Amino acid sequence: MSSIPSALLLPHTLFVTGIGTDVGKTVVSAILTKALGADYWKPVQAGLAPGTDKGTVAALVPNAICHPEAYRLALPASPHAAAAAEGRTLTLNEILAARPVTARPLVIEGAGGVLVPLAPGLLVIDLMQALGVPVVVVSRHYLGSINHTLLTIEALNARRIPIAGLVFNGPPTPETETFILNQTRLPLLLHLPELPDITPEAVARIAAGTPMSALTE
């Protein structure tokens, strides 16, 4: 696991995105929430069973304040499809209006990757741009992950959205990681090892091993 260099202390609010679905955004969000003493907010939740990402973070960081989602959609699908199944249309204004007001740091977790549709003509990256906060990109190693990581970063750069850095999730793959870091010139914020059990204790241990907690002192 890599520590976050002191010169790269993260800002008050962060948006956590991934190179796709199921790459570890929620666990990384929990670690950041714990390390920063932050609140947590998932603007759009698609899929309510067997649980939600907010519920996962609340269980992993028991003392964290987890704010209500702007939208809670039952179907585990792309948000635009989950909303359509309920006869609803997500709007950027409603999401922004639901943004929590807090004096603490805030970790915001996205839905899927940056180009996931929220509604016709509205993508997750549009929300990220409107929020105007730096982004943490979570990359998980699999065949094709280099391409997906670089495409994610290209999309963010094209919109001039600031990127705080990268998180690599899973067993170390040095050649892949070195290539991505050299290609993007982004800092490595954290290397999250494969965890046999994702528990509050494991999250607290990893969070305590980074200097991010200095932000709240």
Quick recap of the structure?
This protein is α/β, with parallel strands linked by helices. It has eight helices and eleven strands. α7 links the parallel β10 and β11.
**Proportion in β-strands:** 15-25%
Uncertain spans: 1-10, 213-217
Summing up helix and strand content along with how strands pair, one would put the structural category as alpha/beta
* Rg, nearest Å: 16 Å
Mean pLDDT value: 91
* Count of alpha and pi helical runs: 8
Strand order of the largest sheet: 4-2-6-1-9-10-11
Shape: globular
Distance between the termini: 23 Å
Write down how many β-strands occur, each being a DSSP E stretch of 2 or more residues: 11
Reported for the largest beta sheet, the result is: 7 strands, parallel
Helix fraction, binned, reads 25-40%
